[in-house]
Design brief:
Length: 600
């Protein structure tokens, strides 16, 4: 842009200010689509890595629709162009504006006010596997810069909390110094890449998912055009190991399968492709009937994401996920567009061309389990609702380095594995784990108990999920002796980070009105009969508006009703709960109350 000379009546300093001010206005107009070459109507086609997003936004406004605030914020200033301001805010210990709070999530930090006057940071750990010295280093960072603990998340990831604004940049850069990163772990980006936690060591796996998760991870990190999607996006790789990855809850689900000979496709191990999972919206990934060569997984993922960039809804955050693009046009039309991006047709195959997959072991993420390598084992450590203190983090790192192969393997079940432990070192490892206040054995209730951050640390949370989950465990462990695995998931809001719809007993936070008062209490709606994998289905609502203080007793009744009325000791809670409608289950639970009161 040519800047015209300004009046000689102004001083040189004033001239420079006015010229800079005019340039700034022009840049602002370009960013907002009001003029300039990047996005204005009738102007040159946008170029650069952000061009696909700008074009999608322009199509939206050209159709007379209004962009949501988040799309406007991206357009006005891309988060990756605003790092100097983040540094300035940190130097001033300043809290971010709503727009900057969104932008800073591109760096993996989330300001969680008003719940807490601090940031939370979420990492990126492809396939959930890190080195022992990285965990120890993160513990040191946490002691210096934030709360002295971390949480394992339901994406086999780590997050740290209670980060003062002044420490935000130091933490981001410190994480990178450890060979880890947090880039793109929040906002409208492709989230942490999950994979089989026992990849490479599992005796039943069909495929080691680590190289494919790693390739996709670095593909994302190094392509700016893959940031700023219409909404967040999840990808998972399941190698058919013993521990479920919950890949069918992801936008893209790669599931290792073995193709038989004689079906017109090279026999061997492929990925079966599922698309559109988002169980918080009551949908699992749809089996497309397509198989993908493992080495093509990144290319296929890239094509799917780029169709989503073009067509995702940028006017309504509640309808902006991939599922709604597919719902709006149908799966086959969507796949045609993906094939156009790929420049090649998909490989489709009949279901009977696939050999049965090995079954999950619902207890394989806790305790000791044999690896495919002779004489070696992985040990699943039970973490209390995913939490580790920094002392425990350093302790686990030392145990992994001294007795294992040095790897720390996180799971979607909010715990971790120490792999490569020799048979002769199992007892020593057990003792060391117990010495830091953790365990390798736990009750069936605690082993499958999952809770998101909840109201204590998330502005969306309607209830304190972790405290309620802890109360459920304390109450029920003393009163119910289960002999079969069970999953109890507590999530604080409709985002369903703890995936309440797919668990045996699922609970979603709700605000409960008090009589004769405008105040509300923490509470939950309760579901039963959800499942994943071969038993995938959304649970049925059983109770509404249960106060948090009453939730432990409700869960106790349901578990006792199951034990008293199951067909045989082999019947799981899932099968039992699906045999009954909500009314029948409530009646059976109430009968347990009567028995308890009668014996009191």
């Amino acid at each position: 842009m040519k800047i015209e000379p300004v009046s000689v009546d102004f001083s040189d300093e004033q001239k420079r200010y006015l010229e800079g001010f005019t340039t700034g206005l022009q840049i602002s107009r370009v960013g907002k689509g009001l003029g300039g070459s990047a996005a204005g109507k009738g102007n040159a086609e946008p170029t650069g890595p952000d061009a696909p997003h700008i074009r999608a936004q322009d199509r939206t406004t050209a159709a007379g629709k209004k962009l949501v605030d988040q799309e406007k914020w991206k357009r006005e200033e891309h988060p990756f162009d605003a790092y100097p301001r983040l540094c300035q805010q940190a130097a001033a210990d300043a809290r971010p504006s709503p727009a900057d709070n969104f932008r800073w999530r591109y760096y993996g930090i989330f300001y969680v006010g008003p719940t807490q006057d601090s940031y939370m940071a979420r990492l990126r750990i492809p396939n959930g596997i890190m080195k022992h010295w990285q965990l120890s280093g993160l513990a040191d960072l946490s002691d210096e810069l934030c709360g002295p603990f971390s949480h394992v998340t339901t994406r086999a990831n780590l997050q740290v909390r209670e980060i003062p604004p002044k420490n935000a940049v130091k933490l981001i850069e410190g994480i990178q110094d450890l060979g880890l990163c947090s880039r793109g772990s929040g906002a409208d980006n492709i989230r942490n890449v999950t994979g089989t936690p026992t990849a490479g060591i599992d005796p039943q796996e069909l495929l080691d998912t680590r190289p494919y998760a790693r390739e996709w991870h670095y593909h994302i990190l190094n392509d700016r055009s893959l940031y700023g999607l219409p909404r967040k996006f999840n990808v998972a790789f399941d190698g058919a190991g013993k521990i479920a990855v919950l890949e069918d809850t992801n936008d893209i689900a790669f599931q290792a399968v073995e193709v038989k000979d004689g079906f017109g496709v090279a026999p061997g191990v492929w990925f079966k492709l599922g698309i559109g999972g988002i169980t918080g919206h009551k949908d699992f990934a749809t089996d497309t009937g397509i198989v993908v060569k493992p080495e093509d997984a990144t290319r296929v993922s890239d094509a799917i994401v780029r169709v989503f960039i073009d067509l995702g809804d940028r006017t309504n955050r509640l309808k902006a996920r991939l599922k709604y693009v597919i719902d709006g046009m149908g799966m086959e039309k969507f796949l045609v567009l993906v094939e156009e991006k790929l420049g090649a047709p998909f490989t489709r195959i009949a279901a009977d061309a696939l050999l049965p997959r090995p079954a999950f072991d619902r207890t394989a993420h806790i305790g000791v389990h044999k690896q495919k390598q002779d004489g070696l084992n992985w040990i699943g450590v039970a973490l209390p609702l995913g939490k580790m203190t920094t002392d425990q983090m350093r302790g686990l790192a030392k145990i992994a380095g001294d007795f294992g192969d040095g790897d720390i393997r996180l799971t979607v079940w909010q715990n971790l594995l120490i792999s490569g432990v020799k048979d002769t070192n199992i007892a020593l490892a057990f003792a060391a784990i117990e010495a830091i206040g953790l365990d390798v054995k736990t009750s069936e209730i605690r082993a499958g108990l999952i809770a998101c951050t909840g109201r204590a640390g998330c502005k969306f949370g309607n209830a304190d999920t972790k405290r309620t989950a802890s109360n459920i465990a304390e109450w029920c462990d003393k009163r119910v002796e289960l002999d079969t695995p069970i999953n109890i998931h507590l999530t604080g809001c409709h985002h369903s980070c703890a995936q309440h719809y797919i668990s045996d007993i699922g609970m979603i936070g709700a605000r409960i009105a008090q009589d004769d008062s405008d105040d509300t209490l923490d509470g939950f709606h309760i579901f039963t009969g959800g499942g994943f994998g071969p038993q995938a289905d959304v649970g049925q609502e059983l109770y509404q508006n249960v106060k948090s203080e009453d939730a432990p007793r409700i869960v106790e009744k349901l578990l006792k009703a199951y034990l008293a009325n199951r067909i045989s000791p082999d019947e799981t809670f899932l099968t039992f709960s699906r045999r009954h409608d909500a009314g029948a289950l409530r009646k059976l639970a109430e009968e347990q109350i009567d028995e308890t009161e009668a014996s009191a």
